[in-house]
Write a structure and sequence with these properties.
Blueprint: E1 8-10, E2 24-25, E3 28-32, E4 38-42, E5 66-70, E6 78-81, E7 90-95, E8 100-112, E9 118-126, E10 132-134, E11 146-149, E12 154-157, E13 170-176, E14 180-185, E15 188-193, E16 197-199, H1 204-208, E17 219-223, H2 230-233, E18 235-244, E19 247-252, E20 258-262, E21 268-272, H3 273-278, E22 285-288, E23 299-303, E24 308-310, E25 315-319, H4 321-329, H5 334-347, H6 351-379, E26 383-385, H7 393-396, E27 398-407, E28 410-415, E29 421-425, E30 431-435, H8 436-441, E31 445-446, E32 448-450, E33 464-466
Antiparallel strand pairs: 1-3, 2-31, 3-4, 5-8, 5-11, 6-7, 8-9, 9-10, 12-13, 12-16, 13-14, 14-15, 17-18, 17-25, 18-19, 19-20, 20-21, 21-22, 22-23, 23-24, 26-27, 27-28, 28-29, 29-30, 30-32, 32-33
């Protein structure tokens, strides 16, 4: 399995406007890249994210030989490489266009092309020991030149007869050894030589107009993941209108760049849009055990930064829209419920459930308004911070009085007798003690901040982090 080219992350950088005691710049990180270059990047600061976790390729040595075809449209052969590298050393032999081959493992490398873009190139180890074949073509860098032959692949026959006339499209239902495949065509199922089959790609219009998968519920909830990348994969995924590899695909609620899709090997992954579009089998997690419905996957693995690790507690559950409404009604955040109501209204047919959900939304909105009113009233009593230790404790501990103003929608406090220190809700929704300069710039920098976010009042905070000069 290849490891992504991930940066090593050091301590957050401090803002240029920070005082001598160097308040923590929440939302910034210092990165050292593989090339040795160091720089600072936003990871929530200024309501922006410059970095994104790099999902690894879901790949491994195969338990049994797999079948593939080199499909260079120009008719050119590809040179076999001695190792899984690109450009790599050539061995002097080739795979011809249209040739079917058997491979036992696959690997990937990153390549910066002449167009300035970085591409993931997959290499396949030939079962006969001759070397490795890659799927890259310089003239069409975004099109993969290796087609995996697998169950479910839509194909046409290079010949024809009365049962399978010209233009017939079938689906592989079974691989017979490494040379033949059973294909179900409209008029029946027959066994063909794989060399006589070619992939039949559905037109974009046909794919977009394909009806929804009747047996698949419209919402998948991934939950129970823990550790690195858990916050990325846990969440709700809504069934998309388009299919993906002739299977359903799902888009994460609130994160349009994250998708739950099927891989060429039949596992489910959560990936970015670019990896989905490139069909390169990359993702932060992998679900195994059922290639038709992610909620039936028996085993889930999560990428921990160096490998995929089985997580027994991780599950994917299928929800109907009615169950989605019930789930959102049980939560505190009215914004999530409002989104669920919008989804239900678009789906139609749930008038009673939507009416009930709207009543609950009104109640939640009213309750939130009351809580905010109570929080502002509580703010008039002031807040005392005690127990901070270390070099910045003198900038944190003390009594803070309500200024009568709001900051980022919540009460703003100033340290008693000190015009330069404020207790405020920063733009990233954490309570923080900051100097005047960072308050005025709304930089998200300060000497301490709350781990919990979006709390109405600082006395509700249970966990604080203090900047000690290094972390």
């Amino acid at each position: 399995m290849s490891t992504p080219s991930a940066p090593s992350v050091a301590a957050p950088a401090t803002s240029a406007s920070s005082p001598t005691s160097a308040p923590f710049s929440k939302g910034w990180v210092r990165v050292k890249w593989d090339a040795g270059i160091k720089n600072s990047y936003r990871l929530g600061a200024e309501n922006a994210i410059d970095l994104y976790p790099c999902p690894p390729a879901v790949q491994a040595t195969t338990a049994s030989p797999c079948i593939a075809r080199y499909r260079d449209a120009g008719g050119y052969p590809v040179d076999i490489r001695r190792a899984a590298a690109f450009p790599g050393e050539r061995v002097g032999a080739t795979i011809t266009a249209g040739e079917v081959f058997i491979f036992t493992s696959k690997s990937s490398v990153k390549h910066t092309h002449s167009d300035g873009k970085v591409y993931d190139i997959y290499l396949y180890q030939l079962a006969d020991g001759r070397g490795w074949v890659h799927d890259f073509h310089a003239d069409t860098p975004g099109v993969r030149q290796v087609q995996i032959i697998e169950v479910g692949l839509r194909v046409s026959w290079t010949k024809n007869d009365a049962d399978v006339p010209v233009g017939s499209v079938g689906e592989i239902t079974e691989l017979v050894g490494t040379a033949k495949a059973k294909v179900k065509f409209p008029n029946g199922t027959w066994t063909f030589s794989i060399r006589e089959l070619k992939p039949a790609q559905a037109s974009p219009a046909a794919s977009a107009s394909k009806p929804a998968f009747a047996s698949v519920k419209p919402v998948i909830r991934i939950h129970g993941a823990s550790g690195s990348n858990a916050n990325i994969v846990n969440g709700l995924y809504h069934l998309a209108a388009q299919s993906y590899r002739d299977k359903p695909m799902f888009q994460q609620d609130g994160f349009p760049d994250r998708w739950l899709v099927i891989t060429s090997s039949g596992s489910w992954v959560v990936c970015q849009t670019k990896d989905k579009d490139a069909m390169n089998n990359s993702g932060w997690c992998e679900g195994l055990g059922n290639s038709n419905d992610p909620s039936l996957a028996k085993t889930w693995k999560l990428w921990n930064g160096s490998s995929f690790v089985v997580q027994e507690s991780m599950r994917a559950s299928a929800l109907t829209i009615s169950e989605l409404l019930t789930l959102r009604m049980s939560e505190d955040d009215p914004k999530n419920l409002a989104t669920a109501i919008s989804i239900a209204e678009k789906a139609g047919g749930l008038t009673d459930a939507v009416t009930k959900a709207k009543a609950e939304l009104a109640r939640k909105d009213a309750a939130l308004t009351k809580l905010e009113t109570d929080a502002m009233e509580l703010a008039t009593r002031g807040v005392s911070i005690t127990g901070a230790t270390g070099k910045n404790s003198e900038n944190i501990n003390g009594r803070y009085v309500f200024t009568g103003e709001r900051f980022n929608g919540k009460a703003l406090f100033q340290r008693e007798g000190d015009r330069e220190k404020f207790l405020l809700l920063d733009k990233n929704k954490s309570w923080m003690v900051s100097p005047t300069s960072d308050k005025e710039g709304n930089t998200g920098a300060g000497w301490c901040f709350s781990v919990e976010t979006d709390l109405l009042h600082p006395t509700a905070v249970r966990n604080w982090k203090v900047w000690d000069g290094d972390s």
